[in-house]
Amino acid sequence: MKEAKKKQGTARLMELAGAKKGRMTAACVLSVLSSACRMVPYFAIYRILQLIVLHYSEGTALAAQDFYILAGASAIGAICYGICGYCSSQLSHGAAYDILYELRIKMMSKMGRISPGYYAGSTQGALKKLLMEDVEQLEVFIAHSLCEIAAAVTVPVFTIIVLFITDWRLALVSLIPIVLSMLILSAALMKKDGAALQKKMADTKAVMEGTIVEYIHGMPVLKIFGRTSAAFSRFENDNTAFAEAVRETAYYNANGMGLYYAFFGAQVLFLLPASALILANTANFAADVITVLFFLVVCAGMKEPLENMMNLAIDGTKINQAVARIDDLLEQPEIQLKGEGKQITGSDIEFNDVTFSYAENDEPAIKNMSFKLEAGTLNALVGPSGGGKSTAAKLLMHFYEPESGCIKIDGTDIREVRWNELVKHIAYVFQDSFLFNDTIANNIKLGSEDATAEQVRNAAKAANIAELIESLPKGYETIVGEETNFSGGEMQRIAIARAILKDAPIVVLDEATAYADAESEAKIQEAFSRLSKGKTVIMIAHRLKSIENADSILVINDGQLVSSGKHTELMESCPLYREMVNANDRRDCWTMRERGGEAV
Ligand code: ADP
Fold first, then answer.
1. What single DSSP character describes residue 5?
2. How far does residue 365's CA lie from ligand 1's centre (Å)?
3. Ligand 1 pocket check for 388: Cβ under 6 Å
4. Nearest ligand 1 atom, CA 390
5. Quick check: CB of 41 below 6 Å from ligand 1?
6. For the whole prediction, is pTM greater than 0.85?
7. Is the dihedral of CA 463, 467, 472, 473 positive or negative?
């Protein structure tokens, strides 16, 4: 069966508008009517002037009735113009905000269903732009531009009809520059290179905005590491790329735009010789002079709607890009559930010939990895940086879908387990824990919303962080980020409290590479061991001393499981492990020398 062609731009926007389509159409129709009514006073004044001049040249009296009718029509036209315009604006704004509301809800709920791995690939800036600017751009387009486009197209059409009714010869002449300018504009918009350049401009702008947001967010870290100039140079490069894209687009469009501007304002240039020809050969000079004046005035007034039309056509291409970016999010693959959704009770883990590659890399990050972890055991993933330890842990959390092979918990393929069920089963303590701008209690309760204040306190105690929290004037009700800030080690202890409260049977710990001080390190280690008691633990370990007593150690390098076993076994059988342990010992020895001065 032939797949239906995917809609784009305004057509796709109408699809996203759903039930609001009717209101948007009504708003456009009213906008067109409003534009038509706007023409009535012009035409009435033309007829009045014509009557005055004709009666003056013939020396006859004016019929007051004709005046009243024309003046009345003019007043009704002006009133209808206002009423239709007002109703159109009300309808379009109402529809725009309803569409925006529904679209944001749709995007946010989609973001909740997308595999978490998506967020690793998207910069914060790009996502912020998508949810704020791109959606806002749609508001401006639906509430204002759409009706303006309807009017921008119909005002010249109505005007041309009126001109043809008045004098078809002058109307034809006045059409020549319009047709030429339209041809030039549509040729410019149709060109593939032009669209590609517009896209390049939008893409480089999005990258630059993403870099700015990251630059600002990362400023404290950059300052500490003295990397502000390096990060600034990345921003400078992105900024230059954007400026280059703008310059390229401007040069590319210069000829077309120049010609367009030259023609669309040139109606009078075409009308004057034609008018001179008509007036030189007329049988009714007075009537034709009025007609010529009418043409000159009306044609000069057509410049504005034509200019509007061009700007709106350019806006239309921006909307296409915004709609395409929104669609890109809406089409992201969701976490797939195979079957009805199974329950898991046990906590033994099995990787069965798992291979996985990140979309942006050719080389797999995990290659044919197989291992089994018994329930209630402490297991460590060790190996050189970039070997695939975090990726393996993320695959267990179903952040990504393996290309081949399967991952089982309690003998059940995790793809057959609902995401909510899976996350209830696993507690993940990240290396850089994130705390929300909320009370400390709510931060600890994340994932265990029904927990009592006492349970929160006990979890904090077990995580060695209760003393610090209780010393704050507002205790657990203190707002993080506003009323207090925590160090990296303290944040990790709060994250451990969160995991302790969750009491999940599987715990994934990403051991922090650097602790602030020895005391903090000891407190975290203690909290880790309390959290791990009785659980199936996977620890991504950076310091090998802490995992010497692990039930099993998995050595991972270059996406593969190199070896596994207990510490003593691996010291004998695995050269890579031996090398890493020796390097760790040398580092610890070096750290002691640093702390102890020359004494050691
Ligand atoms: P480790 O935890 O052992 O340091 P990772 O699992 O983080 O290793 O990385 C394994 C490989 O996958 C590396 O080559 C890394 O560059 C790559 N990688 C990690 N995260 C991503 C990502 N979000 N997108 C693309 N590649 C990634």
1. P
2. 6
3. yes
4. 2
5. no
6. no
7. positive
